[in-house]
Amino acid sequence: MRERQAWRALDAVLDPELDEPITDLDFVRSLEVEGTRVTVHLRLPTAFCSPNFAYLMASDAKDVLSALPWTGEVVVCLDDHHDSDLINRGLAADAGYRGTFGDEAEESLEELRLTFRRKAHTAAMERSLTSLLRQDPELKPHRTVLADLPAGQATDALLRRREALGLSTDPASKVLVDDHGNPYPAEETPVRLRFARSVRISIEGNAHFCRGLLKTRYPEAKANA
Amino acid sequence: MYTKDGESYFIVDAHIALWDARPANQLNIHGKQFIDCFYDYHRNLSPESELWPYEDYLYYGGERLMKDLFEDGYVDHAIFQPARLGAFYKTGFGQTEEAFDLARRHPDKLTYNHCWDPRFEQAGLDQLRRDAERFGLKGVKLYTAEWQGRSRGYKLDDPWSYRYLEACQELGIRNIHVHKGPTIRPLDRDAFDVADVDHAATDFPELNFVVEHCGLPRLEDFCWIATQEPNVHAGLAVAMPFIHTRPRYFAQIIGELRYWLGEDRIQFSSDYALWTPRWLIERFVDFQLPSDMTEYPPITVAQKKKVLGLNAAAMYGIEVPAGLGLAEPDPVAV
């Protein structure tokens, strides 16, 4: 029961770069519950995955588990990474990003998070508009509003990403907007939509690559690549 | 040269290495982690028939390189793009003397590019001048995520980088290959950020900037700057093998690059010995977009010829034998 709750909590931790839950990506190597103590081991596709992303996922995992009402001690370890020792020490001491990486860490991780939330939103926006355009080639993407989108997963995903950025989810809001929620001028529509496609392809491609590498590195990982 | 269906292709492999990652050359655990990571790329993206044993992969030597590239691999000319990785390997990862010696013995087949690191400041700048003369450099390979002491990387628009780029310009080193791709990265906001390439390309319009791995994993950011900077090019190292494992993704990468950069600024690379060129070239010549991918125009034979060799040949002044260039319109008979 508690173990299931812990797994569900980890579903909320995303790889910011791939915009997918770490549980789906199979980055959670093991999860053990003993009374109020939870121990989680994480693994990544390569020993050289970005240390800042690695830290972000590991510390998010620790946060969501600590937030469960019944947890006492929460231990999160990152295995087989070039910075494993450093990151695991930082996590154990709750040292934070800067405390963990010292003077190497110039920024907080919030800006990094924001960058990738924006990319995730751009990709979701393109998915929604492209699928509408396939059904109706006459569609004017710059006039499309949220209310025009069909009910379903793609629209839910777009709304969630708009919320994460603090953008309007009002049904009358335009779908094609910039990172701050402002619609583009009509004449910019083709290039903006075209660029949004590149963003989507990039994120999806990275996810394929990471899944494949994880499977190569850890043959016991579930074959969902 | 590769010939198929009556068409002959002149092949330039624009990114190859002669590395030594054997345990005796590893300085620390990171040396092992690095080559293991490469080996995983190799295992993950190669066809079964092309897999190397791990021992061969650690070190393969010049003789095998010559065979894999020029006897079996259809390559006409190849360019060394060495990574030093001095924090991981005793004599470095790329073997300078061995590679340069091969290039000296086969000048028609091999070009040796060397590397520099702006964090060596003045001493490195003096060394660059000596290297330019000794190796006859036309190009350099920069690994911006290289670790050095406590530093985990540098940017192309750092003041010292600019001094090195000025020296390149003065010394006739026109081709700057920049690794922005997977494997190691510094600890900054987004280590794959290509904004520094954007700045350098604007400020050094006489230099060519070849972004290896075409900006993957930030294909979109790379495409965005490359549309605005005519001297930014895409190297296909690491992108090529997706032709086998994820042909649709490969089609998208090529489609995006053609759309944003055009067909003249894309260069074939096997990234040898991550992968061998033979199968990549065969697959690429046979490659066509999936029929349902109507968002991209079909790839033409002429575009394939440019990507596989003519683009890099033009950049490096490599002579293309008669008949292997693009067919010119017939001259008017006199």
UniProtKB/TrEMBL annotation, chain A:
Lineage, uppermost ranks: Bacteria, Bacillati, Actinomycetota, Actinomycetes, Pseudonocardiales
Protein name: Metal-sulfur cluster biosynthetic enzyme
MIP18 family-like domain mapped to chain residues: 4-74
Gene3D superfamilies: Fe-S cluster assembly (FSCA)
InterPro entries attached to this UniProt entry: FSCA_dom_sf, MIP18-like
Top-level taxon in the UniProt lineage: Bacteria
Organism of this sequence: Amycolatopsis magusensis
TrEMBL record, chain B:
Signal peptide, first to last residue: none
Amidohydrolase-related domain ranges (all copies): 12-318
Superkingdom of the source species: Bacteria
Record field: transmembrane: none
GO molecular function (one): hydrolase activity
Alphabetical UniProt keywords: Hydrolase
A Pfam family recorded for this sequence: Amidohydro_2
Name of the protein this chain belongs to: TIM-barrel fold metal-dependent hydrolase
Provenance organism: Amycolatopsis magusensis
